[in-house]
Amino acid sequence: MAAFRIRVDHENLKFSSAHFVLFGNGKCETLHGHNYRAWVELEGSLQPSDYVLDFLVVKPLMKQVCERLDHKVMLPTENEDLRIDPGDSVVGVIYGNKQYSFPAEDVLLLPIHNTSAELLARYICGVLREEIKSQFGGGGVTAIKVGVQESFGQEASYEEIF
Ligand SMILES: Nc1nc2c(c(=O)[nH]1)N=C([C@H](O)[C@H](O)COP(=O)(O)OP(=O)(O)OP(=O)(O)O)CN2
């Protein structure tokens, strides 16, 4: 089967954020940060413009998502073992015998089960999918794939049919 695929992967598509992966049974990583990078690939048919979708519209969408994640402590709200108390000025978090409190403005609550690169990729993919659908009606896009790199040589990607 023949298909066109575009890829947007720029050095400014990055976010520097803190997280800790939860392993269950009260075990988790220590809080730490990564200089994440993200990229997206879109597969689809050519439009009258001879584009699948203009790079110049995909790039700012990706940039927006990265900016939302940048300089935040990312916390997963879909993990039943992580207790989050989202106050107006302080977010309290309890996991096993660990307790954290963060300034609310530094926290980003994400509707995911864990802040692994895999689930961050799926989250970003979902945000982009909805933006592309609402702004361009999908265009000719048939599949979307997002990659999230934690550090050089370590990345996860997620792909879904549009
Ligand atoms: N499949 C996945 N494996 C791991 C993930 C992930 O998201 N998906 N995440 C981690 C951790 O976040 C961990 O911090 C990364 O591990 P590590 O490479 O040890 O950490 P550094 O970036 O600090 O790299 P150094 O080589 O230690 O400097 C683990 N696995």
UniProtKB/TrEMBL annotation:
Pathway: Purine metabolism; 7-cyano-7-deazaguanine biosynthesis. Pfam families: PTPS. Its EC number is 4.1.2.50. It catalyses: 7,8-dihydroneopterin 3'-triphosphate + H2O = 6-carboxy-5,6,7,8-tetrahydropterin + triphosphate + acetaldehyde + 2 H(+). The keyword Membrane does not apply. It is an enzyme of class 4 (lyase). Belongs to the PTPS family. QueD subfamily. This is 6-carboxy-5,6,7,8-tetrahydropterin synthase.
